[in-house]
């Protein structure tokens, strides 16, 4: 069966209508309509719910979506390998990330090795980034924190201590570092539940028996910065993500009791893909060992994941 039908199917699922899918594919609407009709007729399965011009996936359509995306990824990799003789002189690598930290330096390292390759970065929260990876929308993903799933491989990239930052008029701003216990009773500004920074700092505080005042939750790094700048409390951030500002000062926590870790993820079944391996080799700075052997012999930096609720 022609992969053009699967491309049309994916486009309709993503765009929500035949006309939008046709525009995205650069073909006529009747062409897309015919491809979807043929696909449903030959399979004898209803793939879409029709509500006027709007089309949404049925249960069977959702199952086919994953398979179709996987099929097109494999087709692209096959064509890429045959066309380029495995030299990585052309093609596209798609990266998912929760933020610009680290991913930009990874892109720079990859581009230096493979200047002919096209790179794209798709930003989102943790759930969206993992969803894109598992649905073959991206090839690799860069996330803070370990998400344990049997279908994923995670490679540790970097670990950074969590530091504090306080308004320049705050007493802590005159200190180079503070003991964790000194946060007891102080107003600590926290990200929303599920933030890897929040999880790490709360675990350290709980272990030490320290209870700051945390009456204010803020949903973004930028908002935390503004709240600290206005004297509403003390912020906590990974040192890799701290951006200097004359309105506040960074303060280290003695002993670095809390930290965040950045991981690079790929689908386990794609771990031997030329495209994925080229990225891991580039950010590693040298030859990449066999992933399966490394997985069996050393839990770090390659980690086979099992099962864990998303943060």
From TrEMBL:
Occurrences of domain HTH lysR-type (ranges): 1-58
CDD domains named among the record's database cross-references: PBP2_LTTR_substrate
GO molecular function: DNA-binding transcription factor activity; transcription cis-regulatory region binding
Pfam families: HTH_1, LysR_substrate
Listed PROSITE patterns: HTH_LYSR (PS50931)
Keyword field: DNA-binding, Transcription, Transcription regulation
Keyword presence, Transcription regulation: yes
InterPro entries: LysR_HTH_N (IPR000847), LysR_subst-bd (IPR005119), WH-like_DNA-bd_sf (IPR036388), WH_DNA-bd_sf (IPR036390)
UniProt record similarity statement: Belongs to the LysR transcriptional regulatory family.
Listed PANTHER family: HTH-TYPE TRANSCRIPTIONAL REGULATOR (PTHR30126), LYSR FAMILY TRANSCRIPTIONAL REGULATOR (PTHR30126:SF94)
Protein name from the UniProt record: HTH-type transcriptional activator CmpR
Species of origin: Comamonas testosteroni
